[in-house]
Write a structure and sequence with these properties.
Strand content: 25-35%
CATH topology of one domain: Immunoglobulin-like
Largest sheet: 7 strands, mixed
Number of strands: 23
Structural class: alpha+beta
Shape: globular
Helix content: 25-40%
Radius of gyration: 23 Å
């Protein structure tokens, strides 16, 4: 039976490649290797390409403050914050060092390495890379993390028998790792929740509420997935105390949240659910639409608690009233980045849009239909796209999506 299950797993893993090959796709391999070095605060990174045919050119979009000492095979041309790499032969590599520690404006870290653990995002470790290659040429990719003795590493990907992460990114011809990772002397808990392989991990010996978090997710995640049915089948939640940033930050199939953050705050909001909804939607705003992204996350974190009985109707209404009062501090939503008051007002606007759609459609549709469609598309969301989906659900114009209302210049 065990051999049969392993055979099925291999078939599932290889099936996209087999299908692609039937369509005339050729493959090359990308091997990412990162050695974490607490003594230097760096990761030594190597990217190796191998195959009968490789991309003719790759451009690494670097952060000069974090990516250092670029060298490798083939031709490498530096152009500002770009490394333009022309690989040679059937196997070619590029090397650099990555500075792991990074502080936010608050003075706390959103990336950190100590003598006992490291927490960082793999899509910062490996910068965005654009390639020049024929359309038929696709990559297969792995990520190998080398650590000090007795450390282990976790990322939102499956490992092979050698402990190497097998990367996937459906729809992308060039695959690179994305999402949070944690390495070190770790404690973790794992459970399958409504079809999602969920891991909660943090440094050992710290006050990390792994089992509490899994219990909370067993209660809330199935309800959340009714609205976001394309929620990832693998989820990594990384927790740590100070000096890490005292909030939550989402990533691909993963999130970080400070271990002191309550599962439900005194004001009935939930940072964990807020970040989970970011994971579930996979959307980002353009220069005036961040309020859509943040408003959906805050509104549906409250709705999830309300629908599962985590908060009563009275508590829900009290929270919405408090958010409305807070939102008066920043009436204009059409800005590049949401602040606390903007997110508060955005959540209230989402509630008003939800009620309007339900009323206009005689209860047949709701904001759920809109955000489910957005999550299916993923990627960048604009006000025009949001308005179009909302009007389709309502069957009419939605007054709360009028620009003058969103900018705080008039009532709906």
């Amino acid at each position: 039976m065990r051999l049969f299950l392993r055979f099925l797993l291999i078939l599932v893993t290889l099936s996209p490649w087999v299908t692609a090959n039937a369509k005339g796709v050729d493959y090359y391999d990308v091997r990412y290797q990162a050695a974490l070095k607490p003594e230097t605060g760096m990761a030594d990174v190597t990217i190796t390409l191998s195959g009968d045919e490789l991309p003719s050119k790759l451009t690494l979009h670097l952060k000069p403050a974090r990516h250092h000492n670029i060298e490798g095979d083939g031709d490498i041309e530096m152009d500002g914050d770009k490394a333009i790499w022309t690989p040679k032969g059937k196997t070619s590599s590029i090397h650099y060092q990555f500075k792991i520690d990074k502080k936010k404006g608050s003075g706390h870290y959103d990336s950190r390495i100590t003598d006992d653990w490291a927490i960082l995002r793999t899509d910062k470790l490996i910068p965005p890379i654009s390639t020049r290659a024929p359309q038929r040429l696709h990559s297969r990719a792995t990520l190998e993390i080398t650590t000090p003795k007795n450390w282990r590493s976790l990322a939102p990907y499956q490992k092979d028998e050698a402990g190497v992460f097998i990367l996937k990114d459906d729809g992308r011809r060039f695959i690179r790792p994305k999402g949070w990772m944690i390495a070190g002397d770790l404690g973790s808990r794992q459970e399958f929740i409504d079809g999602t392989d969920t891991v909660v991990a943090g440094p050992r010996g710290k006050d990390i509420r792994r089992q509490d978090t899994l219990a909370f997710l067993n209660w809330t995640l199935p309800e959340l997935k009714k609205v976001f049915p394309l929620f990832p089948d693998k989820l990594l939640i990384v927790m740590a105390p100070d000096p890490m940033w005292r909030g939550g930050l989402s990533g691909t199939r993963s999130l970080f949240i400070h271990s002191d953050r309550p599962l439900i705050s005194g004001n009935r909001t939930s940072s964990l659910l807020h970040e989970l909804i970011h994971v579930g939607t996979g959307i980002r705003g353009d220069k005036e639409s961040d309020w859509i992204v943040e408003g959906i996350a805050e509104y549906y974190s409250l709705q999830t608690l309300r629908r599962t009985g985590g908060i009563s109707e009275r508590r829900y209404q009290e929270t919405m009233e408090k958010l409305a009062a807070w939102g008066e501090e920043s009436p204009d939503l059409l800005v590049k980045r949401s602040s606390g008051p903007i997110t508060a007002r955005a959540a209230v606007v989402m509630g008003e849009i939800d009620l309007y759609i339900q009323s206009a459609s005689d209860g047949e549709r709701s904001l759920d239909d809109v955000v489910t469609a957005m999550a299916a598309d993923r990627g960048e969301i604009t006000l025009d796209r949001f308005r179009k989906l909302a009007e389709e659900a309502a069957g009419s114009e939605v007054p709360q999506l009028d620009r003058t209302f969103l900018s705080g210049k008039k009532k709906p």
